[in-house]
Design a protein that fits this description.
Keywords: Signal. Helix content is about 25%, strand content about 40%. It is of the alpha+beta class. It has one domain. Strands 1, 2, 3, 4, 5, 6, 7 and 10 form an eight-stranded antiparallel beta sheet that branches. The protein has a two-stranded antiparallel sheet with strand order 8-9.
């Protein structure tokens, strides 16, 4: 009977350890989507991100309502590394916001803390160009807008914890 009790106690401790590890991992990175068969799919509720990014745009004096969200992948031509991003845009695609995603075991999550490689990029200007991308490990806005009265502009915002 003592052996059974000790075994049950040990199993409870192991179970609790696994639960705590799971909670730490969950708190560490917010899962945004998955990659299956080379297809990206958003699995998270993006309402909080949408609100946060729209507030960030207002603070940059860019009034925009983000309506299109997608996960995109690309290759940094200078390093040859593949990257993933959550990309949002307004209705006419003249405002685009992107944040890097980390791929681990088929799941895409935001990087956390010191691991965040590039911050949040905002590209504004025109709908046919001026798209967020990564080059030499930094955000760029690819393509020039055809109209000189609406140039392609980039800003990068980093999160700070209070």
């Amino acid at each position: 009977m003592n052996f059974t009790f000790a075994l049950k106690l040990k199993m409870k401790k192991i179970f609790l350890a696994f639960m705590l590890c799971g909670l730490v991992n969950f708190a560490h990175a917010q899962q945004i989507g998955i990659v299956r068969n080379a297809q990206h799919r958003i699995t998270a509720n993006l309402d909080p991100i949408k609100q946060k990014w729209e507030q960030m745009l207002l603070e940059q004096k860019i009034p925009a309502i983000l309506v299109n969200f997608e996960i995109r992948s690309g290759m940094d031509d200078s390093t040859g590394k593949t990257y993933y991003m959550l990309l949002a845009s307004n209705r006419d695609h003249s405002v685009k916001v992107a944040r890097a995603l980390e791929l681990k075991n088929g799941y895409l999550s935001f990087y956390k803390g010191q691991e965040e490689p590039w911050g949040i990029a905002t590209c504004t200007g025109c709908s046919n160009a001026c798209n967020p991308a990564v080059f030499e490990g930094k955000w760029v806005c690819n393509g020039d807008c055809p109209s000189a009265d609406r140039p392609c502009t980039k800003s990068v915002t980093t999160e700070t914890k209070n």
